[in-house]
Design goal:
Strand content: under 5%
Largest sheet: none
Number of strands: 0
Helix content: over 70%
Distance between the termini: 66 Å
Shape: flat
Length: 143
């Protein structure tokens, strides 16, 4: 006689295989839109001018740039202000990870590096070097 646990196990495996097969079939049927040049359309091209969609494209590119420490992705952002914000975020993340405020180009970044370093090292003297009063107070409360 076959054990019930074995039957349940086989049933679960079969259900998983069916799920994978259906997923593969559905995903392979997705069409990739191409532009006039024959290349896949960019995110922005696929938006057809819809503002909320364009905003999502910008957010995706900014997140990818920050995640991968790749400022060149910021250059693909069409809105100059958003592109600059993207660049600042990439530099900020890199400066905080490296604990190197010399990489910063603005006061906010330098203060954020000091805050991060003060918290990780529990060094209150670093809090005193922060020039933004609200951030300094937060630092002193946290360390």
């Amino acid at each position: 006689m076959i054990d019930k646990k074995y039957l349940i196990f086989v049933g679960v495996i079969l259900a998983f295989i069916v799920f994978l097969a259906v997923t593969l079939i559905l995903s392979s049927s997705e069409k990739i839109e191409v532009s006039d040049t024959g290349l896949p359309k960019t995110c922005e091209e696929q938006c057809n001018g819809i503002a909320s969609c364009l905003e999502q494209c910008t957010n995706i590119k900014s997140n990818l740039a920050t995640l991968n420490n790749d400022v060149s992705v910021c250059d693909e952002i069409q809105d100059p202000l958003k592109a600059e914000e993207c660049r600042r975020n990439v530099v900020l993340k890199d400066a905080i990870v490296e604990e190197d405020s010399s990489k910063c180009t603005d006061e906010n970044c330098k203060n954020a590096v000091l805050l991060s370093k003060a918290i990780s090292t529990k060094d209150r003297s670093l809090c005193e070097q922060i020039t933004i009063e609200a951030m300094k107070a937060d630092c002193l409360n946290l360390v």
